[in-house]
Amino acid sequence: MESRCLHLCLKQVKILAQVIILETLFLATTHDTLYYKEACQLRDVILRKPLGMSLYDQNLEEEKNFIHIVGKSKEGHIIAYLQFKAIDESTTKMQQVAVHSEYQNQGIGRNLVIFSETFAKKEDFSQIILHAREPVIGFYERLGYTKVGDRFHEVGIPHYKMEKHIEPNNIN
User: Fold this and answer.
1) Hey, is 22 helix, strand or coil?
2) Which structural domain, as residue segments, surrounds residue 29?
3) Which end of the chain, N or C, is less packed with Cβ atoms under 10 Å?
4) Per the domain annotation, does 29 fall within a domain?
């Protein structure tokens, strides 16, 4: 797992992959970019403030080893985000999935997840896990994720663990 993070860090790349879908540019990037900083603001507004929390109250240092996937509008604003945390050589955890409120229910989240799955395959992961809030279980089920285990609480609200098996591309 650490060798994977080190390999990506040693490449010294800022944009790891990109594609344009429905006028939204999706790209994989690293923590030391303006994309990441703008995405943190989006995450704070969409995921933390509604819970009376602040993203900036937590230590974000760990995220320097994560893969950050962002969606940019045609105007250049970050409108969608998720991150991958490698669990082991074959499993990655998708987390912090957020879409700007003005862009929800337009397919942006779906395309963000599909792009991220393609990227995870390219990185030779064979399983994606996530912790989904109850209101978005159906969204992930429609994308092929299945619930695993019982409901639990995270950041004070109910979640379910979900997983999806993917076939790595083995492309270098």
Assistant:
1) coil
2) 2-165
3) C
4) yes
